[in-house]
Design goal:
By secondary structure, the chain is mainly α. The protein contains eight helices and two strands; from the N terminus they run ααααααββαα. The protein has a two-stranded antiparallel ribbon. Helix 3 crosses helix 8 and helix 5 packs across helix 7. 21% of the residues are buried.
Amino acid sequence: MTIFLWIGFVVFVFAMVMLDLGVFHRKARAVSIGEAFAWTFVWVAMALVFNVFVYFLYAENWFGWTDLHSHQLTGAQAAIQFFTGYVIEKSLSLDNIFVIAMIFAYFSVPLSEQHRVLFWGILGAVVLRGVMIAMGAVLIERFDWIIYVFGGFLILSAVKMLVMRHDNLDPNKNPLVRLTRRFYPVTDEFVGSRVFTTLDGRKAVTPLVLALVLVESSDGIFAVESIPAIFAITPDPVLVFTSNVVA
């Protein structure tokens, strides 16, 4: 039953994201401020509804859930840990959002295409963070002292946020961007929503690809900082993963 709940959650997340792109944003267009606020309200409301589900999952032992966990949590404890993790991850995402805005500005990504880049960035982030959370859960289960290593990461991250400047961002120095340019020529202009095109008879990529590569790599860097933070709240991998992904 555990595996079915895991699969159900992942399928639900992907279904909602696909619904976002495939139905509500099927045609590339700029998202207005009002629409952005409305969607933010929808996603936050869904997170709070899921928090209620978490409460009953642990409180009422739905599907025999708590019988499968060595660390017993009451419904209230699970709900508080999920909500705390959600708020922390939401807060830590602000720095990531700022960097993404810098990336879009650097490549002059049209407003109509920014939602599409973020869509694929979210899908990549779900997979990446899922793998990293699974690895972190295994390490904590086997080595208790690894939590101090995670704490060290958080201290280094705090220092970096205090001293690092974002106004000198140079995406062309990113190793993944350099690797992409080595394999494919990059067009100077955007070609609508296309990521692949031809340039002088060769297969080429548009600047959308470079923007997406940077969005994914930046999320990987921020995941190294945010995942240890959520493990400081709860060792339960289900709460860690769901609060991280929902945020």
